[in-house]
Each structure stands twice: as C-alpha cells, then as structure tokens.
Amino acid sequence: MPDNSQDESFKEKDRWNMISIYLNGLLFISKLVVGIMTMAISIISDSIDSGIDVITSAMARYSVKKAHEPADEDHSYGHGKYENLSGLIQAIVIILIALAIILEAGRRMIVGVLLENLDIGIAIMVVSVITKLGLSQKMLGVAKKHESIAMEANACNLRADVWISLGVLISLVIIRLAGPYIENIEYIDPIFAIMIGLVIMRAAFGIAKRSSRDLLDGQLPPEELAVIQEVMARHKTDYLEYHRLRARKSGSERHIDMHLVVPKDISLEDAHEITDEIEKEIQARINNATVVIHVEPCLGECEACRNPGNINGYREKD
C-alpha cells in the first residue's frame, strides 16, 4: 500500500521549493536592475545572493525529489544522502560567491564609489526584507516538520539573507540622509558589501558542517540515541545483552542496527517476536527509522540457559 504521508510530505516540500525559486528569481532580476541603476555594490551583491538562492532552491528541489525515490539495485539504502550532498554543494557555491563579493567590494573601495537613484534602491530593499523574512520562516518550518536537510540549508540561507538585505537597507538610508553632510559617507556601501560576504560565508560553513556529518555517517543526535537506550531498557528481561549498536542518518532517514544476544535454547519464533517488538517500538518513537536486529545465541553458559525456568521474562520453549 502506498505511503500517503510520504507523498504529502514530498508535495509540501516541492511546493515551497518552487515558490522559493520563483520569488528569488524575481528578487534577483529586480535587485540586479536597481543595483546597476544606483551603482551600489551592496545591492548588486544582494542581487547575486538572490541569484544563488535560485540555484540552491533548484538544487534543494532536485535533491528532495531524489531522496524520496525508493531504494533500488544501486542504492539499497535509499537516496536520502542526495539531500546531504546538495547541502554540501550549496555551501561550496555560497562560499565562492561570498569571496567574489568581498573582492569586488575591496576593489570599489580602492577605485572609488559613485551612487545614484538611492530612493529606488531603498524601496527594492524594503520589498526584499519583507519577502525573504516571510519565505524563510515558512520554509524553515516545513524543513523541520519533514526533517529535510536540503530545505533547512536553503531556509537558513534565506534567513541570513534577511539580515543581509536589512544591512543594505540601513546603509542606503544612512547614505541618503547623511550624504549632503558627511564627506565620503558612500564608502559605507562597499563596507556593508564586505560584511554581507562574511555573513554569507559563516552561514555556508555551518551548512557544510551539518551536511558533511551525515555524509560521513555521523552518529544520531544524543536525544535519539537516548530513545533507543530507553527502549532497550524496557525490554531488558527479554534478552541477555546487545552490542554493536550503529545508528546513522541519511537525509531524513535513520538507519539503526545492532546485535542482540538471547538464551541459546530460546525458540526462533520467540526470538523473532522479541526483535519485532523492539524494532516496532523504536520506529514508533523515531521518525523514518529503519531498524535491523541481528540475533545471536549465547554460548550456553549463562544463567538463563542453565535454569531457563527460573529466569523471569525470558520466553521459554514449549
């Protein structure tokens, strides 16, 4: 039977990724035109950042689509890591663009700054702040709801853009109001552009760190490991011990496996029932978890094997 919840999850993520592409595309064109009209490097830098958002949103949409594809012969664990790979590529692209912005702003400070039509620039930045604030809030909520690292990377980038656009807006307002009174006040423009580049770079490093962790099969968060340990503690009378617990994340999916030691004389049916109960309970408490338990018999020297009738909780042979 098809999983309707997964279909709805994909549809909602895909819808907001498309909205992000369209809105950022409009902002990119608008700010680029206004940036050329005003000759403000901060607006041009912000327009480039919106252009990056178009690319990263498209990448997020593609990776989310791939991540929802079922496991196949070449990807037996599914396609979840497409989202992690997308987040890492986004981060690398963003860092390169940030460096270009910083270098161009530095060049402007050397050759001089000439600004025009600042009122138009202020107006487009007001629109940018309002649009990106609303979009980033909604996309971050959708990303956390469906545990999409690609969407979260995109939403965090958009949230950083709000501060960037607000900084550009403030710099233009200061130049517009203080220009007639303070000499060389226009140099605030490239200074803010450099600050934009540094903020973008900082956000990109954070995205790269989170994406790389899952690509390198980093352990699940402590709170999720604690859930696994809680479940195992609840069933401690059903087995002798467990070991080789491995738990990693792939996109929004979790892969958990372990070895479970049971009394040597326990029936195969009872061993299966124990593992089935543990797997179902972990999956009920941790979203998108695939749990695999490998059963091992003890060496026949434990108390449960010597006196199976005296050990409460272990399932006896019929």
Could you outline the blueprint of secondary structure elements for this entry?
Blueprint: H1 4-38, H2 41-67, H3 81-111, H4 118-146, H5 149-178, H6 188-215, H7 222-234, E1 241-250, E2 253-262, H8 268-285, E3 289-297, H9 303-306
Parallel strand pairs: 2-3
Antiparallel strand pairs: 1-2
Helix pairs in contact: 1-2, 1-4, 2-3, 2-5, 2-6, 3-5, 3-6, 4-5, 5-6, 7-8
Properties at a glance:
Alpha-lytic protease prodomain-like; about 325 residues; Alpha-Beta Plaits; 2 domains; mainly alpha; 3 strands
What does the model show?
- By secondary structure, the protein is mostly helical.
- The protein folds into 2 domains: 4-215, Cation efflux protein transmembrane domain (Alpha-lytic protease prodomain-like, Up-down Bundle); 222-310, Cation efflux protein, cytoplasmic domain (Alpha-Beta Plaits, 2-Layer Sandwich).
- The protein contains 9 helices and 3 strands.
- Strands 1-2-3 form a 3-stranded mixed sheet.
- Helix 2 (41-67) packs antiparallel against helix 3 (81-111) and helix 3 (81-111) runs antiparallel to helix 6 (188-215).
- The longest helix has 35 residues, at 4-38.
- The protein is elongated.
- The two termini are 36 Å apart.
Rg estimate, integer Å: 27 Å
Distance between the termini: 36 Å
Q: What string, H for helix and E for strand, traces the elements in order?
A: HHHHHHHEEHEH
- The number of distinct helices, counting runs of at least 4 residues, comes to 9
CATH superfamily of the largest domain: Cation efflux protein transmembrane domain
CATH structural architecture of the largest domain: Up-down Bundle
What would the average pLDDT be, to the nearest integer?
A: 76
Number of strands: 3
The main β sheet shows up as: 3 strands, mixed
How does the helix and strand content classify structurally?
mainly alpha
Can you give the helix content as a percent range? 55-70%
* Count of folded domains: 2
* Physical arrangement of strands within the biggest beta sheet: 1-2-3
- What characteristic shape results from the CA principal axes? elongated
CATH top level of the largest domain is Mainly Alpha
Which fold does the CATH topology of the largest domain refer to?
A: Alpha-lytic protease prodomain-like
The amount of beta strand, in percent, is 5-15%
